[in-house]
Design brief:
- Helix content is about 40%, strand content about 20%.
- It is built from 6 helices and 6 strands, in the order ββββααβαααβα.
- The radius of gyration is 17 Å and the shape is elongated.
- The two termini are about 25 Å apart.
Length: about 160
């Protein structure tokens, strides 16, 4: 049964291999919608909350070479709750490209190394004030906790103001 703090999660329609959140006491499920920034938000809090998900270290490495990613990070500055959830570990990042699931013939030509990626990640966190989580295989779980906490906080703020 839903409570007064229940929320609906919106997943961007372009999100590949995205998460579906099950209906529970707090969550009323997942809807698809077009988002200008991020991959996940809370219905009604679209201008306050965003999660950008990176499914692999190779996806993150590719994004670092794409201006579109930096434009997205710029837009995330406007959000009260802005998160980058990485579905890999710090070890995966530091061991790049060896940790990447790509053919050896391609891996051997990659010039970018893990230390460079880690320094870029630190730079992102400082420049864009986004909170970054190395979630490994628990990205969905960590994202749900972030969604639930932000929703609870914003509903409490709304009740206090009312």
């Amino acid at each position: 049964m839903a409570d007064n703090n229940s929320f609906i999660i919106i997943r961007d329609t372009r999100e590949q291999n995205g998460w579906d959140f099950a209906v529970s006491k707090s969550c009323l499920g997942t809807e698809s919608g077009t988002m200008k920034t991020g991959d996940y938000t809370i219905k009604g809090l679209e201008t306050l909350f965003t999660i950008e998900r990176k499914g692999s270290v190779q996806e993150f490495a590719q994004n670092l070479m794409d201006d579109r990613f930096y434009r997205e990070m710029d837009r995330m500055k406007a959000f009260k709750y802005a998160y980058l959830v990485l579905e890999f570990t710090a070890e995966d990042l530091l061991n790049y490209p060896d940790s990447a699931k790509i053919p050896y013939s391609i891996k051997s030509r990659i010039k970018i190394r893990g230390n460079f990626l880690m320094s870029k990640l630190i730079e992102l966190q400082r420049s864009y004030t986004v909170d970054i989580f190395f979630a490994g295989c628990r990205g969905k779980d960590i994202s749900y906790i972030l969604l639930k906490a932000a929703n609870k906080n914003e509903r409490r703020v709304t009740k206090t103001v009312s």
